[in-house]
Amino acid sequence: MCLAIPGKVVELHEDGSGIVDYGGVRREADLSFVNAKVGDWVIVHAGFAIEILDEEEAKKTLDAFALVLEGMEEEKLTRRG
Question: Is the domain defined by 6-80 classed in CATH 2.30.30.140?
């Protein structure tokens, strides 16, 4: 299974690539499949931006991931305890 986490475009390069920020972790991505601008939220799969999201949708997705991670952490603690 592959999960794609929204990231925010923070830099564009002339070759169609750019830098995407995932909550402080920045990675280069190919942005040539979408018409992204600095400040846009994108979904990146295998190094390629495949969709632009509005900020509200990106935040909903990030909140959902946070809930899942929180639940996993609680389960881990319960199993240890």
Answer: yes
